[in-house]
Hints:
Blueprint: H1 36-39, E1 42-46, E2 54-58, E3 67-71, E4 74-77, H2 78-82, E5 92-94, E6 99-102, E7 122-123, E8 129-136, E9 140-147, E10 156-159, E11 164-167, E12 173-174, H3 177-191
Parallel strand pairs: 7-10
Antiparallel strand pairs: 1-2, 2-10, 3-9, 4-6, 5-6, 8-9, 11-12
Domain SET: 40-162
Organism: Micrurus spixii (Amazon coral snake)
GO molecular function, one term: chromatin binding
Amino acid sequence: MMKKREKLVLIRAGPVYSFDKSTSSCISTSPLLPDPYESERVYVDASLISNAGEGLFTKIAAEAGTVLSFYNGIRITHQEVDSRDWSLNRNTISLDDETVIDVPEPYSHVTKYCASLGHKANHSFTPNAVYDSFVHPRFGLIKCVRTIQAVEKDEELTVAYGYDHSSTGQNVPEAPEWYLAELRAFQASLKK
């Protein structure tokens, strides 16, 4: 008597993720497909920092050294970034000596891009996180947001942007004006 062969049935239980490295013109083939790891750890809400717009907040308490978020974007050159107005560089971060990751308009809005949320972390001179290199299974080499101290649930994640705020010799600072104003306020608070 022959045994009946059992059938294996695959049921798709959720979205399918595949390698999706950005280019200079494509941020993602699925810009509204959130990262599942990140979705369990962070959310975007109104920042607690004055005039900062949106910020990145924790869904969980986490220890120092914990990766909570990712920073993907289009890949452009430092030369492109340096040759354009600061207003276009709101969501740029150096990946390496040649490449900058950028989350340009309209992708800076979570209604247009939520595949990674690390670009929503705001600046602080007393941060609780850092941007670090990360090899992501979907995006390849990108940046991540890693805590540098323990954080509580619903705490806003902040990083030090690290702009060069010294003069370039042409009397043009290598930082946007809002950053220079924050730097002056921070330095004044240290003198008190």
